[in-house]
Amino acid sequence: MIERTLQPHLLAQAGRNPVVTLTGPRQSGKTTLCRTAFPRLPYVSLEAPATRELALEDPVGFLARYPDGVILDEVQRAPELPSYLQGIVDLDPRPGRFVLTGSQNLALLSTVSQSLAGRTAVLELLPLGLEEVRRFPSPPQDLDDILWRGGYPRPFEQALPPDEWLASYTTTYLERDVRQLVNVGDLLLFQTFLRLCAARTGQLLNLSSLSADCGVSQPTVRSWLSVLEASYIAFRLPPFHTNLSKRLVKAPKLYFYDTGLVCSLLGITRPEQLATHPLRGALFETWVVAEITKQHLHRGRRPRLFFYGERGRLEIDLLIERGPEIVAVEIKSSRTPSAFFFDSFDSLAARFAEQERPLLRLTEKIVAYGGEESQERRGGLLLSWSEIAAHPWVNA
User: Fold this and answer.
1) CB within 10 Å: which end of the chain, N or C, has fewer?
2) Residues 171/216, Cβ–Cβ less than 8 Å
3) Strand spans (E) along 146-265
4) Cα 311 from chain centroid?
5) Residue ranges in 243-279 assigned as alpha helix (H)
């Protein structure tokens, strides 16, 4: 297994806190990372029925088995354990004793935040970023191949066909996580909903349209979207809200964390199919936004990401907020650069200048595109997809 970008940040937090909590989607590599980073700690999976039964029935006795610490995997399966850990670490606050992992964001974080506030650091591990994919022998070199394969580690580690593995992953996800998170009476209908969401990646989220196409109510759509977010399948990118314009778009945009999973849900079985696929642009945009998100989270930083949109007028794909400084990113799947790529940046800068009390500054203008060569241009930086991982997205 390659070294994950998050590992030094995980170790640093373990050196300062008695408990470290690592969350992220199933099969993103959490268990492997924790066992690699903390080889001296015993490992216990709460997915095992006998182990979970013991932890639920006798949490004090269960934790007493590990006086020097333990890695507790899928800890949301025994939600009372963090409450008992609180007393243990208060009596003995040695750093790095307990490592908790989980694949259900809301269930895990609500339990941890109530019981271990001020005692644990929380980190998130997403599927592989481009810099991590390139650490494997013979990594994919072509953009369409990278979009199609996605970033789940196991197909890279075991040379498995990505489309077959991702199809099995979807089935497992539906049978396990969905039923644990929400009462879904018809899993086939939820799978239809999942595919409809995949077809909308990179687009404004229209709940009424999604509800009508799926044949379920809007409250159900909201509930199911929360399932996708809680299990790290998809996320909503909020619009940038200031008083810059009264015509600002208010709906969020929907994205998936992994383009390989989107391709699987859309029935794309070979990377060559992406060359003429109508959603290639949306897939590339999804990949770039997810890559920038991973750049932050895998360095222990929580990004402030938005998009900017005025109805029928100005649109900017991504804004990265760094206090009063704004990094604006346009995303173009075209392999051929164009001077028109940079046009919207001037309009955005003008919006900031029109404020009565200018508080925001447009400090970087970047066009991430599908070509091979990066260039510094008068309008900003033209950034090749191949250099996305090398760009310093995270503010020092």
Assistant:
1) C
2) no
3) 203-204, 234-237, 253-256
4) 27
5) 259-265
Spatial neighbors of 261 by CB under 8 A, at least 6 apart, are: 150, 152, 166, 169, 170, 198, 233
| Helix or strand (DSSP H, E) at 306 | strand 305-309
Q: By C-alpha distance, which of 73, 65, 59, 119 is closest to 92?
A: 119
How much is the mean pLDDT over the chain? 91
CA distance 36 to 23: 16
- In the numeric block, the tokens 């099969």 are attached to 27
- Give the model's pLDDT for residue 183: 72
Phi, psi for 163 (deg, rounded to 5): -65, -40
Which tokens is 245 given?
Answer: 């314009």
Name the residue among 16, 225, 232 with its Cα closest to residue 108: 232
- Residues 223 and 230: their CA atoms lie apart, in Å, by 11
List the structure tokens of 315.
Answer: 């649109």
pLDDT at 118: 82
Local confidence band at 319 (pLDDT 50, 70, 90 cut-offs) = very high
Q: Which phi-psi region, left, alpha or beta, contains residue 232 (left: φ > 0; alpha: ψ -120 to 50)?
A: left
Helix axes 105-115, 81-91, angle to 10 degrees: 40
3 state SS of 141 = coil
Q: Which two tokens stand for residue 2?
A: 């390659």
Distance CA 184, CA 174 (A): 10
Amino acid at 216: V
pLDDT in tens, 252-291: 999 999 999 999 999 999 999 999 999 999 999 999 999 9
Give yes or no for a contact between 388 and 130, defined as CB atoms under 8 angstroms apart: yes
CB of 329 closer than 8 Å to CB of 319? yes
- pLDDT tens for each residue of 87-142: 999 999 999 999 999 886 655 666 676 778 788 999 999 999 999 999 999 999 99
Output the pTM of the full model.
0.95
Using the structure block, give the residue that is written with the tokens 């998100």: 293
Name all domains of the chain by residue range, CATH numbers in brackets: 7-124 (3.40.50.300), 130-239+251-279 (1.10.10.10)
CB neighbour list of residue 39: distance below 8 Å, 6 or more residues apart: none
Residue 275 identity (one-letter amino acid): A
Question: What's the pLDDT tens digit per position in 56-78?
Answer: 999 999 999 999 999 999 988 88
